[in-house]
Structures are given as C-alpha cells and as structure tokens.
Fold this sequence. Notes:
single chain; 305 residues; TIM Barrel; eight-stranded parallel beta sheet; 45% helix; 10% strand; EC 4.1.2.4; DeoC/FbaB/LacD_aldolase; DeoC
Amino acid sequence: MNSSSHSRDIPYPDIVPIDEVAVNQRVARLNSRSIKKESKVAALEMALSMIDLTTLEGSDTPGKVIQLCHKAKEPHADMPDLPTVAAVCVYPNMVSVAEKALRGTEIHVAGVATAFPSGTATLDAKIEETKQVVGDGADEVDMVISRGEFLKGNYHYVFDEIAAVREAAGDAHLKVILETGELQTYENVRRASDLAIRAGADFIKTSTGKVKPAATQPVTLVMLEAIRDFYYKTDRMVGMKPAGGIRKAKQAIQYLVLVNETLGADWLTPDYFRFGASSLANDLLLQIVKQKTGVYQSSYYFSND
C-alpha cells in the first residue's frame, strides 16, 4: 500500500537521501566555531536549563530520586541565581516520588514508558504503562519505538503505535525515542524521525542511553533537518532531545550551535530542546564557576549523580 492510498497523514514518509560526507563535514565546520567569555557563560547556563536530569538504573531508590530532585531544584548551593534544570526523568515506579519532590516547582517530571528501553511489549501494555505514569504525575512521557518492526519495514505499525501512545498520554508532552544506534543508516534515522513527528511527537529523541552509539552530532543534525522540513510545511514546532553520552560542557555548546544554525534561536529554549543526561550537569557547573571566578572548583563540591 502506498501513502496516497492511505487515509492518515503519510505513515510511509518518502525516503530522504542523506549525504553522510556532507553531514559530517557540516558538523565539523560548526564545531570549529569559538564562543567568547560572556556568550559562553550564557550558553553554559542555557544548556543547564535544558537538561533532563536522569536516573534510569535498576538500583534506583526513592532516596536517590529525591536527591536528584533536590539537585534539579538547586544545581549549586552557592549560586542561587542559576537556572534549574528542565526535568527529572525516571522509571515509572519512581514517577510519584519525583512528582512529590518537585511539587510547587516548574521542573517537569518525565516518566519513561512503553517497555523502556527495549520497547518489546504489547500495545495494550504500552498504553497501560503510559496512562500509569501520567496518572502518577508525569507531565512528560518518553516512549521508545518498536525498532524491530521499523527495521522489518512495518512502518504502519510504528506510526499507529506512536499515535496510540500520543492519545494515551493526554495533555502530557510525548518524547519519542528512536534508538538511533540500532537504526543502521542515516536514511532510517530520517524516516523514523518523519514517522514520529507525523504521528504526534512533541519531541524526537535520539536514544535510551542503553545502546551504543547513543547521541551523536551527525545523527542529531539529520533529526534536526527532519524537524526543520516539517516546520516549513506545517508551521508546527517539534522539539529535539539528544540523549546518552553527552558528558562535557564543550559538547553541549556544540549541540546548541547545531540547533541554532539548523532551526534558529526559537528552538534554543527548554520548550524545544533538551539534553538527556546525568553527569553533564556537573561539568556545566564546573565550567560556569570557572568562567565566573577564574578557578576550577573541586569535583567534591558536586553531588555524584
């Protein structure tokens, strides 16, 4: 069945050919740009405000999640004017803990759902889990697509699944994780991005952080271009979330340059761009202190999470 014979919004996006050499060259070119001190401080603080502070381990406890929420609310005790992070992202059984700890703040609670990280569960189970995390207080849902179905070419299945989870999430924002490390080609990344966007994603996200490679700048550029092209056609802004492997402030700033040059300044806000990270916050704080005081603070001043 081709897309013209289907009643919904193009669940079979056209294949967009991707020039891998050109993608890598553009990323390298943008990475060569330098940022001056005043702009660098602003960029570091912007990146901090865009973090989804994340703990997704089997050993997670309520105490660990509560500690993470305290860090989200007050990234650095000696710098109360710093922005808070955007969200705290946890497993479904910890959503209610995070919601209680963050109540009264503007920090979002994100719950992973749909059998994260594998995505191998029935649609009914995925819908039930989505409704559970929203019911427990998540105002953002991070779902994973069925990569096996996608790689078999069963694009209708993937489209329908995302659309069903979108409906189950209600008013919560939906971030759709493509797990790009398993998609094999840039063309697949682009097609999966287009599917997710057209099925109702509020954000598209690179990775669960459980598969390598996780976020890379070339893959992120391919996804940003899908967002750009969709915006040109529809005027609907979709967010982007690279996740996994982004640990250093320098990397974060490179991603911000990538976003600005591909989508423009309107996307440089936590409403449309996030970092999925756990250790990135500490390096951003380290670099902010260095820029403001001229000296590096000891890593002992930062919580190890």
